[in-house]
Design brief:
two-stranded antiparallel sheet, Rossmann fold, 12 helices, UDP-galactose 4-epimerase, domain 1, 40% helix, 17% strand, disordered N terminus, alpha/beta, single chain
Length: 344
Amino acid sequence: MPKAPRLRPSSTRFFEGVPVILKKALITGIAGQDGSYLAELLLSRGYEVHGMVRRVAIEDPEHHLWRLRQILPNITLHAASLESFGSIFKVVNKVHPDECYHLAAQSYVGYSFDDEFSIFQTNINGTHHVLAALKECAPTCRFYFAGSSEMFGNANTAPQDEETPFRPRSAYGISKVTGFHLTCNYREAFGVHASCGILYNHESPRRGFEFVTRKITSHAAMIKLGRAKEVRLGNLESKRDWGHSREYVAAMWLMLQQERPGDYVIATGEIHSVREFAEAAFAHVGLDYREYVRIDPQLFRPAEANLLVGCPAKAARVLGWSPKTRLNELVAEMVDADLAALQA
């Protein structure tokens, strides 16, 4: 008969002689856009923050950990791979977190059409590995799974909410639906406090350059400074519900503070096209996007999702969460950050 998992208390510090229990959080994908904002949020709330990254990130922090540059002295990083249950088990057993935020995934939808096997291996098995390790080593840990609006895919209703059926149209969307059901299974079968955030598109100056939003803002900045002449884009009429990553990670934290776990759509409820995003980015630097945007048919997706716009009513009612940053404000912040980086 296997031994019961050994439970460890959170870190204890003393303030004026009084013991203060600090929560420990483990973030997979801490080096990404959401992971970095979440780490900052948790640190501001007094957490002991641990992050899981690939070993190459630790060996080459300048390229892989740039989003964490300001907080690296205040967090603890652990080398692990989502493809390796052993490495994840080792980290979880060492940290014994109170909260685990599973954000790591291959998340660029465009790549998922070209490399389905890698997407499934990383996103599905990785989620299973994290859940299984927590079940064995930290059964009282609260778990967050990063879902995606791509799970709805070819949705036949808009806006989408927590009751809308999933109809994914990409390997990435399929992998996230599978991760969602794994999360629900551990919640229902094993009593894990596991919640899923179905997050719609969220951007920031920390967004990767492979995403169309950052591609647009960075090129608007480069063109303004005379360092580029055009930007090549795909379907300008593709519409999305865009919010700010910094606000969306706050919703993640709120989910794990609830007495009961649950699933939540996190969105703005507003819909905008890629054309609108490009128009706003170029207008912010005094340019007309029509003079610089070139349509490239090769950048169109093989299967475009239907109108994806979320209804965040449950998040507002239960979590008290609501988006605050409007699209023009988000675009301006991203363009200004790209201008500053280029000029520096």
